[in-house]
Specification:
One of its GO terms (molecular function) is ATP binding. By secondary structure, the chain is mainly alpha-helical. The protein is 65% helix and 5% strand. Helix 24 (472-484) runs parallel beside helix 26.
């Protein structure tokens, strides 16, 4: 049975049902036997001759257009030149296909829908070199048996200066599926679209439209009915197409990239130096085209080790030049898309190479070119549409190799002065914005001043936190540049503005660097008060972020001397407080006590309520570590009473931070006293407070102690759930607590 018969039969049945006729009624009206009509509809009989079709058309009382449609379907079926447009000799390059399991599963599911007679159109899009064509051809071969009328691959040459027009492509498909020249001539160019629809209406074909330029080129080629499946590949997202399944693809995973390279160069050679193989894959940024080039390079140079190529690719400034094999160059693939950009889009693309982080916001991008926010957003979306830029919500990302390409274009097409000015403007804006955002969490500051004219929304502390975290790599790079350029005042201002914010994001990973850099800049400025402040901040970072107790105490001692020179009582108090904290964690409680007392005295003398709050909490925690659990609980309750009495005098985020810590410590003490229920109550309060303030560092501490209390109290399943919640917090949590939670989950699994 061929699809031509099914096509005619399906159309005949459709027209009969639309006319509300039974087979018997149509047989009586047309003079064609009922058995013959049934066999035609089920594809069990060859397509009838013209006279039979005319009789059926009369019996159905068809209009002229419907009559021609039925006759055309019969002609296609009778045409001896017609054979399935079956491109089974697929182009090379798909035998070593790797990965894309999820995408292939999605295509298989859509092919199943097409098999039921519902046409499917899938737009496969992605940056240059991601393997869109390879995926489409591999899928076409895998799904070939589901489309017995054939598989046709058309190269639409979308990157050409003058790609083929829809009329030319339509004619090529019509000829490929066997429409007779006389029928094409009779219909004329204006009738080809209708012939095209008729030819595909009852068929089950797979049509690959490769390398589409835009929506206008492919829209006339999309079937309106029947069981045809169309796979469109394009560097553009083809946003204007409607009723289309979208399948964006990117780079391979590291493991898939290693498998791909192994398939090209051979297992023995790959196994000789797996680390070097991984480096080659990484420096190809897991882009299939780059991997192909690298693999071919090694395959044709058997005297080269994989390490030699990895080292060759290590130099960023030469990497794109190295990713060339014969007439295949990765940069050439990028050139094709870049040449199609508007001038403003090409300029922004070049300047995006100056962004230090992996992605950027609209506001960051606007600083590079000086354009208005909404104009910049439109240009970014043009880059996304052309496949040169990835997007995730309101973040935009250049693929690693595209960033190198953008850097080359920047060097070739912009002056050094223009690039330096753009980078300077971006860094200045990042530093200024980070200072305003950080001061949301600083006592006596809060919301931005009315005079501040920013391009990002910092109207709430939550917005400020989100901005600081989202742009952390970018503002950190600006901070480093300021330090390198010896802009000491800018470095010190930013570090001080982020002092209290650091409590909200304790385990970010860069606070030791920020505080150490600021301490050095403060020393260079010759201001002992600033020096004491940033030495103390460095002591905190060494103690809390890195657990380096003795190094922390050395910095505290330096800070104390500077604070005494400056006659700065609060910084003297912080020096004693951090020293006491480190000694307490080392288990030297007797040595910690006098430092705690001195810190409390100095804070009170200075009228520093935030410092006094910290000293009270620190003293209670020292009692907890010393095993004086009841006394610790009593001191923590005093701290809560102090918070309640101080009310608005304590900055809200600092108050929430301390309340969370106090409730956690009380819960920990109650656990050690084996008061499991009381412990769980306090620890649940701590978890809720930490979540409300979006502080995963504190949340992980509360969760691990809550899970321990539940486990000790005999509630193993509840404990398992809470340990899992701790693990799920990921990198923003205290890494020690995450490790402990994993270990205890493993113990529960073994019990």
């Amino acid at each position: 049975m061929t699809e031509e018969n099914v096509g005619f039969g399906a159309l005949l049945r459709q027209l009969r049902l639309e006319a509300s006729l039974t087979i018997e009624a149509l047989a009586e009206a047309s003079g064609v036997s009922g058995r013959g009509i049934g066999n035609l509809e089920r594809g069990r009989r060859a397509t009838p001759q013209r006279g039979t079709v005319a009789a059926l058309a009369n019996g159905l009382n068809l209009r002229e257009a419907e009559r021609e449609r039925l006759l055309a379907a019969a002609r296609i079926g009778r045409n001896p030149r017609q054979s399935p447009a079956d491109v089974r000799a697929f182009p090379r390059g798909i035998d070593d296909f790797v990965g894309r399991e999820q995408e292939l599963a999605q295509l298989a599911a859509l092919a199943g829908q097409a098999s039921l007679g519902r046409s499917q159109v899938v737009a496969v899009s992605g940056p240059p070199g991601t393997g869109k064509t390879t995926l489409a051809l591999h899928a076409a071969r895998e799904l070939a048996d589901r489309f017995p009328d054939g598989q046709l691959v058309l190269d639409l040459r979308g990157m050409d200066d003058e790609p083929p027009m829809p009329a030319e492509l339509t004619l090529r498909v019509l000829k490929a599926v066997g429409v007779a020249d006389r029928d094409l001539a009779k219909a004329g160019p204006q009738g080809h679209p209708e012939l095209y629809r008729q030819a595909l209406a009852g068929r089950r074909c797979l049509l690959v439209l490769d390398n589409a330029r835009d929506e206008a080129q492919v829209r006339p080629l999309l079937p309106s009915a029947g069981g045809t499946m169309v796979l469109i590949t394009s560097r553009r997202m083809l946003t204007g197409l409607e009723d289309v399944e979208r399948l964006p693809i990117g780079e391979l995973t590291p493991s898939e990239a290693a498998v791909f390279l192994t398939g090209v160069i051979g297992k023995d050679r790959a196994d000789t130096d797996p680390d070097a193989l991984s480096e080659v894959a990484l420096r190809c940024a897991y882009l299939p085209l780059a991997l192909r080039v690298a693999g071919n390079w090694l395959a044709t140079r058997t005297g080269w080790t994989v390490r030699r190529l990895a080292d060759r690719l290590a130099l960023q400034e030469r990497r794109l030049d190295a990713l060339a094999a014969g007439d295949v160059r990765v940069s050439a693939a990028f050139d094709l898309s870049y040449r199609q950009l508007t001038p403003s889009a090409a300029r922004l693309f070049r300047f995006l190479a100056l962004v230090d982080g992996p992605d950027a916001s609209v506001a960051v991008s606007a600083q590079l070119t000086g354009q208005e926010f909404f104009d910049t957003e439109d240009i970014l979306e043009e880059l996304v549409e052309t496949g040169l830029l990835g997007s995730d919500q309101d973040r935009y990302r250049l693929h690693d190799l595209l960033k190198l390409y953008a850097r080359d274009r920047l060097k070739a097409e912009e002056t050094e002065e223009a690039a330096a000015a753009a980078r300077s403007a971006l860094h200045r804006w990042l530093l200024e914005t980070a200072v305003v955002a950080g001061r949301w969490f600083e006592p006596d500051h809060g919301a931005p001043p009315p005079t501040w004219q920013g391009t990002v929304d910092l109207s709430t502390a939550d917005h400020a936190r989100q901005w600081l975290q989202m742009e952390s790599i970018n503002w950190l790079a600006a901070f480093r540049t300021a330090a390198h350029e010896e802009d000491h005042a800018a470095v010190v201002e930013l570090a001080e503005a982020l002092h209290w914010f650091s409590d909200q994001w304790i385990f970010w990973g860069h606070w030791p660097e920020v505080s150490a850099t600021a301490a050095a800049c403060a020393q260079a400025l010759g201001d002992p008060g600033l020096e004491a402040t940033h030495l103390n901040l460095h002591a905190w970072a060494l103690l809390i972020c890195e657990g380096r107790h003795h190094a922390s105490m050395e910095r505290s001692a330096e800070a104390l001397k500077a604070a005494q020179r400056a006659n700065d009582l609060p910084q003297q108090a912080w020096s004693h407080s951090y020293t006491a904290w480190a000694l307490s964690q080392l288990g030297d409680y007797s040595a910690a006590a006098p430092h705690n007392r001195e810190a409390a005295r100095l804070f009170e003398a200075a009228g520093d309520m935030h410092g006094t709050l910290h000293a009270m909490s620190s003293h209670a925690d020292t009692l907890l570590r010393a095993g004086r659990y009841e006394e610790s609980i009593a001191e923590h309750l005093r701290t809560l009473a102090f918070l309640d009495q101080a009310s608005d005098s304590i900055e809200p985020h600092s108050a929430a931070f301390n309340r969370t810590n106090v409730q956690t410590s009380i819960g920990q003490a109650q656990t050690l006293l084996k008061n499991w229920a009381k412990a769980a109550d306090h620890l649940r309060i701590a978890v809720d407070l930490a979540r409300a303030s979006a502080n995963p560092g504190l949340e992980s501490r509360a969760l691990i102690h809550l899970a321990d209390a539940l486990h000790a109290g005999g509630h193993q399943e509840q404990a398992r759930e809470v340990y899992t919640q701790c693990v799920d917090l990921g990198e923003s949590a205290n890494p020690q607590h995450v490790v402990s939670a994993r270990e205890r989950l493993a113990e529960l699994d073994q019990s």
